[in-house]
Write a structure and sequence with these properties.
Length: 284
């Protein structure tokens, strides 16, 4: 991830570079831009992932640069640094598509949190684009329409997106993570593995997942495993310990506790109730 810092005072640029801790975060800090005109030209030419600019710049203001980036549909994210706390400036920044609006004096924690948030957003977008591209290629191959690719790419991409986002009420990230969990919950996965698959941090995934589904990732996985446990109790002769172990619950007592929370009875009573029901049916 490349970062362009723009300010007419070099000491401010150096301060932002120091506070941003870019090198340790695995980011490349490009040479500074000293005017708004230079910043905009550099963004158009070098396409950095992030621009951090003062709102007050020679030639073009920071807001003007942000508006031009949005108008030209460039991918560069923008953080505006300003000494003005007036809400009208912040509102104008939001309308211009600015990712964040930070007030002077610049606080290290606020700047780093803003940068990390943007990194997560970019990772999520990149991950989704990769999935869409892979699914598009698979669909093309399966449908045998390689020769018509140039004519159908647009509609095909739309179809892939519709298939990928099974529930439009969920974000790309949550839809992707749900799909992965639904397919792999019988494997040894948890929050960390799901986050790694989605190419985002565990904390960011946890926050987004809980926000949209009102339960955590591990709780969602546990719910699916309990449904599978019900099936195994009903259809196999596996012991409760074996079922627990198969679903990665190595403490049988904890497994029984989770099952009770889901079903209102422990696994043994659940299995017994099924046998009783079957016996009654046989007598009838």
């Amino acid at each position: 991830m490349r970062v362009l810092i723009a300010d007419d005072e070099e000491r401010i640029c150096e301060l932002i570079k120091f506070l941003g801790n870019f090198q340790e975060e695995g980011m490349e800090c490009l040479p500074f831009a000293k005017t708004g005109k230079e910043a905009l030209e550099r963004v158009e030419k070098e396409l950095p992932e992030l621009l951090i600019t003062d709102i007050k710049m020679p030639v073009f203001s920071g807001l003007h640069i942000a508006k031009e980036i949005a108008r030209k549909k460039l991918r560069t994210k923008v953080i505006i640094i300003s000494a003005y706390s007036d809400f009208s400036y912040a509102k104008e920044g939001i309308q211009a598509g600015v990712s964040d609006y930070l007030l002077k004096p610049i606080k290290k924690k606020e700047l780093q949190e803003s940068i990390r948030k943007i990194k997560e957003e970019l990772k999520e977008k990149e991950s989704i684009e990769e999935i869409i591209e892979e699914k598009a290629e698979e669909t093309i191959m399966h449908q045998g329409i390689l020769r018509e690719k140039s004519l159908s790419e647009s509609s095909l991409e739309k179809k892939v997106m519709e298939d990928l986002l099974l529930d439009a009420s969920y974000s790309h990230l949550v839809s992707l993570s749900k799909k992965f969990i639904d397919q792999c919950f019988e494997e040894d996965i948890g929050l960390e593995e799901v986050a790694e698959h989605c190419k985002v941090s565990a904390s960011y995934l946890s926050t987004q997942f809980k926000k949209e589904l009102s339960l955590g990732v591990n709780k969602y996985i546990s719910g699916l495993r309990m449904e599978r446990a019900k099936q195994l109790l009903a259809e196999t002769n596996l012991s409760i310990t074996e079922i627990a172990s198969q679903l990665f619950y190595y403490d049988t007592k904890y497994f029984s506790k989770c099952f009770f929370e889901k079903m209102g009875m422990n696994p043994k009573d659940y299995r017994n109730s099924l046998h009783e029901n079957r016996s009654e049916e046989d007598r009838i």
